[in-house]
Specification:
With about 525 residues, the chain is mostly beta strands. It folds into 2 domains: about 5-10 and about 435-520, Immunoglobulin-like, CATH 2.60.40; about 35-425, 6 Propeller (Neuraminidase). It has 1 helix and 37 strands. It has one helix spanning about 5-15, and strands spanning about 35, 45, 55, 60-70, 75-85, 85-90, 90-95, 110-120, 125-130, 140-145, 160, 175-180, 190-195, 205-210, 225, 235-240, 245-255, 260-265, 275, 290, 300-305, 310-315, 330, 340-345, 350-355, 365-370, 385, 395-400, 405-410, 420-425, 445, 455-460, 465-470, 475-485, 485-490, 505-510, 515-520. Strands 2, 3, 4, 5, 6 and 7 form a 6-stranded antiparallel beta sheet that branches. Strand 29 (about 405-410) and strand 30 (about 420-425) form a beta hairpin. The longest helix is centred in the first third of the chain and has 14 residues, at about 5-15. It starts with a helix and ends with a strand. The relative contact order is 0.11.
Length: about 525
């Protein structure tokens, strides 16, 4: 946690009359849990290039997905692992290797680069690219869904082919690295790069499943939305939606060098804007990462070697569509930073994870950095938290956030083969947010329901209360209080001093005890 974030929380707490102590600064590292090997295999595990290796649902369950090279002839299959209130469940194979149809010996690679995205309803959507159609000569994008409260169906019958990039099937045209995003209304989008128009230079395409609707699976190009028409190659897209449901895409284009381009899909008309160039001075840019914060500002971060060594650069676009006047370096070229992944939490704080070689160029490690709402990135690296501590290189991190907690997965070589590692920074003792099913608790809140201006929060055993976080029904953090004694008064206001709207809220103490609070009009 940065010093600015600590001061902001202190000020908010004092204004609300509810904060008596706060810890931060040097204590931030203690908030991170241990590094956990989730795959634990003797074969190579792959996170992919799409920043979507981890997802967190509204019930607080954490889901991780990866491709494992454990199929016949070292082919890839998709695995997942879930953590809920019972801890980490056993790994599940949810996409099997399927032999190439009609058969093309030697390049039956399997299913790779899986990506997850949850919807507000609790459904979990999986995308991957798959070689089952014609091996390396025809890679296509596939999809399946885990319904809210349900389970994955690992059968082939549940795998839905989203792209038909060859019409008729002619070898050499492929759809690669799908990147999903979900809109607040429940619409689901997937974007990828595709060689169907030119066997040497890919274009960026997209597809949308409307809320309550289904995918358009009609064969041919009309079912897919073409974002680019560049004569050069375009690849490695990342996407994010804003509060209005508009879909922002940024990607690496090789037209005129290696540049970062951006376009936005209007949620009302369903049309894409003309691409614009994001980087202002680069020509050796790498894959970008994007996120939209609570003010509707789009943040784009990408690696660039314009200064010699690899450094991360950033630029923003306001909700009104105005780009910041300059792209700025946010890391040092000598560190060789690369592979950024970006997420905005419910408080508007940005969380950036990336790999770099500041300790050893031969042994890259994964780092985390945060940016306060309205603040600036620390370009010195002094506030970075080193997440991986490995004897082998750590790479390709993905980050997700929920209710102030941060969840990171990456690919790690410390065990002799690539494994999937996980680490989290939790606002409290567990990563599971209180859900509407919580009824009993060791926390007592009175009065409850509340119509007045304050409630008293205490423990039923009269023990020390410690820190308590408040979340709304969607799992977004809306307030906090800390007390040294056995209770505290809370004026039912958020961290900006605004009174909470009528509805149901959930309180969680630092030891995981919870309580439900109803706020009346």
């Amino acid at each position: 946690m940065s010093a600015r974030a600590v001061l902001r929380r202190v000020a908010a707490g004092l204004a609300a009359g509810l904060l008596t102590s706060v810890t931060g600064g040097a204590a931030a590292a203690a908030e991170w849990g241990p590094e956990t090997n989730l795959s634990q295999t003797a074969t190579d595990s792959e996170t992919g290039l799409n920043h979507r290796g981890v997802a967190v649902l509204a019930d607080g369950s954490v889901h991780v997905v990866w491709a494992e090279r454990d199929g016949p002839d070292a082919t890839y299959r998709v695995w997942t692992r879930r953590r809920d209130g019972s801890g980490w469940r056993a790994p599940e194979r949810i996409v099997d290797y399927l032999e190439t149809d009609p058969g093309n010996p030697g390049d039956d690679i399997g299913a790779k680069y899986p990506a997850l995205v949850p919807t507000p309803s609790g459904d979990l959507h999986l995308f991957w690219h798959d070689y089952r159609v014609a091996g390396i000569d025809n890679v296509e994008v596939f999809w399946k869904m885990r319904p809210a409260g349900g389970a994955w169906n690992p059968d082939r019958s549940a795998d839905v082919r989203l792209t038909t990039s060859q019409h008729p099937e002619v070898n050499g045209e492929n759809s690669y690295v799908p990147v999903p995003a979900a809109s607040p209304d429940g619409s689901v989008h997937v974007t990828w790069y595709d060689y169907r128009f030119d066997g040497w230079n890919a274009e960026i395409l997209s597809k949308t499943r409307p809320a309550g609707g289904s995918w358009d699976l009609a064969p041919g190009d009309a079912a897919d939305e073409r974002i680019t028409t560049d004569p050069g190659h375009s690849e490695l897209v990342d996407t994010a939606t804003d509060a209005a449901g508009n879909l922002h895409a940024a990607w690496r284009s090789l037209e005129g060098g290696a540049r970062i381009r951006h376009a936005v899909r209007d949620a009302v008309t369903g049309t894409w804007s003309a691409p614009t160039t994001v980087d202002l001075a680069g020509n050796v840019a790498g894959a970008p990462a994007v996120a939209v914060d609570g003010d509707g500002t789009l943040h784009v971060v990408w690696p660039d070697s314009r200064a010699g060594g690899r450094a991360l650069f950033a630029r923003t676009r306001s909700a009104a569509g105005a780009w910041s006047p300059a792209d700025v370096a946010i890391s040092r070229p000598e560190d060789g930073a690369d592979e950024p992944s970006l997420s905005a939490d419910g408080n508007g704080t940005l969380h950036l994870v990336f790999s770099d070689g500041r300790h050893s160029l031969l042994n890259r490690e994964v780092f985390h950095r945060e940016r306060d709402p309205g603040g600036a990135w620390d370009s010195t690296g002094a506030t970075d938290t080193r997440l991986s501590n490995a004897s082998g290189s750590s790479s390709r991190p993905s980050v997700a956030t929920r209710a102030g907690s941060v969840f990171v997965v990456w690919r790690d070589l410390r065990d002799g083969n690539h494994e999937i590692y996980f680490r989290e920074r939790v606002e409290g003792a567990t990563g599971v947010v209180a859900s509407p099913g919580v009824t009993a608790s060791a926390l007592i809140v009175a009065p409850n329901p509340v119509r007045g201006s304050a409630v008293r929060v205490r423990r039923a055993d009269a023990g020390a209360l410690g820190r308590v976080l408040a979340f709304d029904a969607a799992g977004r953090r809306v307030g906090s209080l800390t007390a040294a004694g056995d209770g505290a008064l809370w004026n039912v206001r958020d961290e900006r001093g605004r009174r909470l709207r009528p509805g149901t809220y959930f309180l969680r103490a630092s030891d995981g005890e919870r309580a439900r609070l109803t706020v009346l009009r």
